[in-house]
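User: What would this chain look like folded?
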Amino acid sequence: MALRASHRDRDGRFSGTRPERAIIDIGSNSVRMVLYGGSPRAPVILLNEKVVARLGREIATTGRLADEAVDLAMRGLSRYAMILQDLGIEDVEVVATAAAREAENGPDFLGQIRALGLEPRLLSGEEEARISAMGVIGAFPDAAGVVADLGGGSLELVQIADGDCKAGTSLPLGTLRLPEIRGQKPAETRKAASRILKEAGWGEPIDGALYLVGGTWRAMATYAMTADAYPLSDPHGFELTYEEALDLAATMAVGKPDNLQISPRISSLRAASMPDAGALLMALLKKLKPASIVFSSWGLREGLLYDRLEPYAREQDPLLAGVSVFSASRGCPPTLAARVAAWTVGALPARSPGAERLRLAATMLALASMQTEPNLRTAQAIDWALQKRWIAIDARGRALLAAAVCGNANQCDLPASLYELAPAEALEDAIAWGLAIRLCRRLGALSRKSFQSSSLAIADGKLILTLEEAHGALFGIPNEKDLRLLAERLGLEPVLSIVPDHV
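Assistant: Here's the prediction, encoded as structure tokens.
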């Protein structure tokens, strides 16, 4: 990008996290700028702004971007360019997709953007599909199936497996194009979409899930979550079985926009496109027969960021990468959390696959919560666990994080909503994680000496806290209670062992 700032005005603008990267996505429906900070492996959105220019609204009839749409888009882009200039953000990618790709006056439009000092890259349909798929892979490292990215001008489909994707397909089935195939009844719209899918080679069942990317899909997820009073609020990672997805698609296809707008998070524009999108989803489900559908908030923009990471950076655990940066900014450096997790590991159940990464994440959040006022910390930490957009964690994992931060506060009567997300046995384990964190942090105020002079272990039906003789005074009345609480939760006898100092 050619823009340069006269000074780097970067301090204190976004709650301590600096905006380091920007993506401008010029789509058929909206022109959006997103500023990212935090970990490159799990970037945090610091600003997300869009202009609904509907650049592609007249392409089917005139072959051009409407003049009013171009003017509206350029007004937004001029604003974006000034913000980037003022913040001094130099790491900027600008991409244009279906509308600019197909319109007769697309090149002129891109020229106007270059005059602002921005450097737009026109993506082919295949590139758009691949990059969107990389976004899904970045968010779901073990993803396997097909990505369906629904934009304003096109639908991109691409197969993914083993951290890679095959060549994608771009079809004229975006939300602005679906009215062109709309029938008198939803079934007619579905059949028309099915014909296009089959002709493009997407008529056979797939192995794996169908990953849905795009604002209209997410609005449908929000509808389903609201209608079912689902405990989580973020549609990212929300999953439905094949049968549940068919029911949702059918509801959308026959719904009236006013009736579909059951949440403030569903805009009138999204609601208007949901019936056609429901018919399209029905066609996708009946042709591809996925095992389930998974909604992803990561797509093209995040795919651009993930795609350029070095292989070693891609291999990082995205959950731990995100939580560590978040917690470090709130007083819990990753090294401290690792010490606490290591100190507690000998006295905890590990029945669940992947428990250690969740336990480390829970440790970070629990310790970070202690920097918050006592009357706020537990409720806030529960919200962090359940509602913040973490990557590579499912609803069950979120519930375990929340149970652990409750245990850390000795609030072992969990919110009922957690039992909707995870089995009681797993939640019981997570409460023990939190009680162990509580014992560790309160034993010696997390001093380095307290780690060196103490240990925790299970042996012969006993939970044994061992202290070196010189630090025996650390075991006070609060710690006696903490040890007893954890032991009772584990069905063990609490024991204090004083040993000679380590030489």
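Confidence is low (pLDDT under 50) at residues 1-13. If you want, I can go into more detail on any region.
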